[in-house]
Each structure stands twice: as structure tokens, then as C-alpha cells.
């Protein structure tokens, strides 16, 4: 069993049904024609299980069954690089020094950390599944409920990688720029603008919209607050992107009567208006 | 004092229950509280129904008591009850109420703009009339 691991390039199939074997042989023969180095698919275990952890055959019998006497594995001729040669800079300039690529650990804990138990299905945020409500499709008019643009009606463009919604006023209509909005804090109306032909630039991603914060405490405590961005400045790129997207959308908005005025207005509740009774 | 009576052939509007909003014809009276009712052209099977959930309309059909569904349907279609009903103010009010409830956010905006415009025009005319009458008074 230990010997098989060294040979494996493909994933070893633990329980492959017998019918697959002839099909695999065909592909492996074809592959053998294309690339002679490719390993054939692995055989199922030749040691039937009697109980968990106990095989039918002993070590020596298995050696014979797996024909390990025929298989010879040699170590690779060239070892991977262990050290690298770097030039010496700074005070003792000139000359070279030898640096290890894989270094010894610089800290050994006094007590061994116990192994963590295996957990299942706990993914980092970047791998989470993103969902989008069925009522939100490209071109839907959304009502923002939170943030400085609360109550404004806004056009939905697309969902970004983190799940946030890319949204635009358009700027000329209600002063909402290209912005991200959270799905949960938005009401989707049934009004839709036809955005089928609109091309949204590919560089509008979450990284583009992420807030930038400077943190380089070279100075003492008193001087730090100067370097951090207090006042947000609109970059030229944002302006050009805004124009590029809005020009396409404004044309579509003009085609629908009264839609421009609708997007300019804000949503509000008054006496006798109950959100649970409203049809959006 | 009373103009609409429970009689054989009276068309009634069902106000609540599983068949709310449909029209039926009274085929027979069972006892003080229930009637045998049938609505072949409005999707109500022949059944007993309490008077409480029925609201009488102005329409009466002509068929003998306990007439079978076929006769009720013939009478109904002869009188064209469905079209007559749709033309009544009652049915129109119901339709308007439903439309209002179905209004989307955009529709509400359009209605608000239309109302605003209408009220402006009315106010303008009123002011004109007031001015004229005050001038005449002098």
C-alpha cells in the first residue's frame, strides 16, 4: 500500500467497478499513444477487507500480488534547490551571501498545540455561495433603505463577487453614483429598465469600490491623523466610468415615460400607508 | 323599504368564504339560514350556503325552484348576467379597489403626478371664478 502512493500522478480511485476497467484501458492506450509517460488508472485494492483495518492478505503476500518485485522507484536525479545566492546590500556592499530557501522554524512552542478537530463545510467568506433574490434582475429599480442615499430609487446593474449589488442613480438623475448596495437593505420594485445591451466595464469590481485606508505609523501619535484620508476625493477614473455607464442608461430611461421623474423622487411613507400592504 | 328579496332566481354576491367575490343564483331555500345555491357561470358548485355570506343584487332569473344546473345556466346566459354585473357601479367599485391594491410603486408615482396636475387645474379655474365673482360684486 505504501509503495502505491509514490507512483500516483492521478487520484487513486478507491472502489472502481469492474466494468470501468476495459474503458480505462482504452483511454490509457490512447493516452499512451499521445504521452507515453502517463500512468494507467489505478487498480482497486487487491487486499479485500475482512474488518475495518484488517486485510485478508499479509504483507509478503501483498508484495507478490502487487508485483512490487517488478516495480523499481528511484529518487529524482536533480534535487530541488536548497539555497539561493543573493547580493549583499547596505553597509557591507558588494559580495554575495548564501541564503536557505526553506528555513528552520524560528519559534518552537513550549507546549504542543493539540490538533484541531476536523470541521465540515466551514468556508472562508471568499468561497461562500452568493444568492440573489429572484425579484432583483439587471435593470430593476431598487429603493435604497440605508446609507446616505436612503429613500432614493436607483437602477440595479449587476451583482459583484462579494454579493453586493452594483447600482447607479444615474448620477444626473438623483446624485447616486456607481455604488455598491447590500441586497438585504434594498426593496426591489417590479419596475424594470431594459439594460440588455448596456456594457458595464469589467474593472468595476469589489476591489475598485473598497474603501482605502492608509496605515503607516512612521510618525509619533500626534501626527498620524494627517496622512489618513479624511476628505474623500472623486478620482478621474470614477468620473469617466460614471459617464460611460450613465450615458447608456439615460438613453433607455428616456424611452419610458415618467421614469426619469420617478427616479428623481424619493420613497416615503405617510398616514395610512403600510409597507406590508404595498405592492412594490 | 326593502327592495331586494330572497326569492328563487335572485342573483347574490358572495362576500366572504371560499367563494368570496362570485355571483350565484338562489335555487331553493333550505331553512331559515341556508339556501341551495348554484353558480354555473361563475364556478360555484351547487351547494348549501348560509344567507349571511350572500349579498343580494338587483338581478332575478326565471326558473322553477330546485331546477337543475342546466336550467340555471340557460337562464343565466339568457339574461347575460355576467355582462350586466360588470356594468353595475358595484362591480366597478370592486374592480377599482382591486386595481388600487395592485398598484406598483411606479404606478403610485404616476397617480400622484396625475392627481397633482388635476388639482392644479381645478384650483386655477376656481380662482378664476372667484376673481370674476368678486369683481362683479364690486
Automatic annotation (TrEMBL), chain A:
Ranges of Basic and acidic residues composition bias in the record: 1-34
Q: Where is this region: Disordered?
A: 1-49
What's in the keyword line of the UniProt record?
Cytoplasm, Endoplasmic reticulum, Isopeptide bond, Phosphoprotein, Ribonucleoprotein, Ribosomal protein, Ubl conjugation
GO BP terms: cytoplasmic translation; ribosomal large subunit assembly
Transmembrane parts of this sequence: none
Q: Which GO terms describe its molecular function?
A: RNA binding; structural constituent of ribosome
Positions of the Large ribosomal subunit protein uL6 N-terminal domain = 36-80
Looking up InterPro entries in the UniProt record yields:
60S_ribosomal_eL6, Rib_uL2_dom2, Ribosomal_eL6_CS, Ribosomal_eL6_KOW, Ribosomal_uL6_N, Translation_prot_SH3-like_sf
First-listed, main subcellular location of the protein, grouped into a coarse class:
cytoplasm
> Which family is it part of?
Belongs to the eukaryotic ribosomal protein eL6 family.
- Protein name in UniProt: 60S ribosomal protein L6
TrEMBL record, chain B:
Q: Which InterPro entries match?
A: Rib_uL2_dom2, Ribosomal_eL14, Ribosomal_eL14_dom, Translation_prot_SH3-like_sf
GO CC annotation:
cytosolic large ribosomal subunit
Q: Which domain of life is it from?
A: Eukaryota
Q: Carries keyword Ribonucleoprotein?
A: yes
* Coiled-coil residue windows: none
Keywords in alphabetical order, please. Answer: Ribonucleoprotein, Ribosomal protein
**Family stated for the protein in its record:** Belongs to the eukaryotic ribosomal protein eL14 family.
> What is this protein called in UniProt?
Large ribosomal subunit protein eL14
This chain's source organism reads Buceros rhinoceros silvestris
Amino acid at each position: 500500500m505504501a509503495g502505491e502512493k509514490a507512483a500516483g500522478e492521478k487520484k487513486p480511485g478507491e472502489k472502481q467497478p469492474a466494468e470501468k476497467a476495459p474503458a480505462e484501458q482504452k483511454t490509457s492506450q490512447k493516452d499512451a499513444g499521445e504521452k507515453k509517460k502517463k500512468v494507467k488508472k489505478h487498480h482497486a485494492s487487491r487486499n479485500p477487507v475482512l474488518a475495518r483495518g484488517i486485510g485478508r492478505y499479509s504483507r509478503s503476500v501483498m508484495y507478490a500480488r502487487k508485483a512490487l518485485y517488478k516495480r523499481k522507484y528511484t529518487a529524482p536525479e536533480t534535487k530541488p534547490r536548497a539555497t539561493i545566492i543573493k547580493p549583499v546590500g547596505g553597509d557591507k556592499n558588494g559580495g554575495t551571501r548564501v541564503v536557505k530557501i526553506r528555513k528552520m522554524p524560528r519559534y518552537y512552542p513550549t507546549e504542543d498545540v493539540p490538533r484541531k478537530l476536523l470541521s465540515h463545510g466551514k468556508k472562508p467568506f471568499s468561497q461562500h455561495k452568493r444568492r440573489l433574490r429572484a425579484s432583483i434582475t439587471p435593470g430593476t429599480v431598487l429603493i435604497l433603505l440605508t446609507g446616505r442615499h436612503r429613500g432614493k430609487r436607483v437602477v440595479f446593474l449587476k451583482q459583484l463577487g462579494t454579493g453586493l449589488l452594483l447600482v447607479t442613480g444615474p448620477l444626473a438623475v438623483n446624485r447616486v453614483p456607481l455604488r455598491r448596495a447590500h441586497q438585504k437593505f434594498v426593496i426591489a420594485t417590479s419596475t424594470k429598465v431594459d439594460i440588455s445591451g448596456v456594457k458595464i466595464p469589467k474593472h468595476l469590481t469589489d476591489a475598485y469600490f473598497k474603501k482605502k485606508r492608509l496605515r503607516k505609523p512612521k510618525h509619533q501619535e500626534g501626527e498620524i491623523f494627517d496622512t489618513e484620508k479624511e476628505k474623500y476625493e472623486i478620482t478621474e477614473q470614477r468620473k469617466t466610468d460614471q459617464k460611460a455607464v450613465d450615458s447608456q442608461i439615460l438613453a433607455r430611461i428616456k424611452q419610458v415615460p415618467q421614469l426619469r421623474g420617478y427616479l428623481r423622487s424619493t420613497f416615503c411613507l405617510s398616514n395610512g400607508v403600510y409597507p406590508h400592504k404595498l405592492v412594490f | 323599504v326593502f327592495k331586494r328579496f330572497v326569492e328563487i332566481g335572485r342573483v347574490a354576491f358572495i362576500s366572504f368564504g371560499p367563494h368570496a367575490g362570485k355571483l350565484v343564483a338562489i335555487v331553493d331555500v333550505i331553512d331559515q339560514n341556508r339556501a341551495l345555491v348554484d353558480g354555473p357561470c361563475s364556478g360555484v358548485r351547487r351547494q348549501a350556503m348560509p344567507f349571511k355570506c350572500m349579498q343580494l343584487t338587483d338581478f332575478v332569473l326565471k326558473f322553477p325552484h330546485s331546477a337543475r344546473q342546466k336550467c340555471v345556466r340557460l337562464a343565466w346566459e339568457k339574461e347575460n348576467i355576467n355582462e350586466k354585473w360588470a356594468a353595475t357601479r358595484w362591480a366597478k367599485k370592486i374592480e377599482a379597489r382591486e386595481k388600487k391594491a395592485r398598484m406598483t410603486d411606479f404606478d403610485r408615482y404616476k397617480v400622484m403626478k396625475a392627481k397633482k396636475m388635476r388639482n392644479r387645474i381645478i384650483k386655477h379655474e376656481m380662482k378664476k371664478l372667484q376673481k370674476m365673482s368678486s369683481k362683479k360684486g364690486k
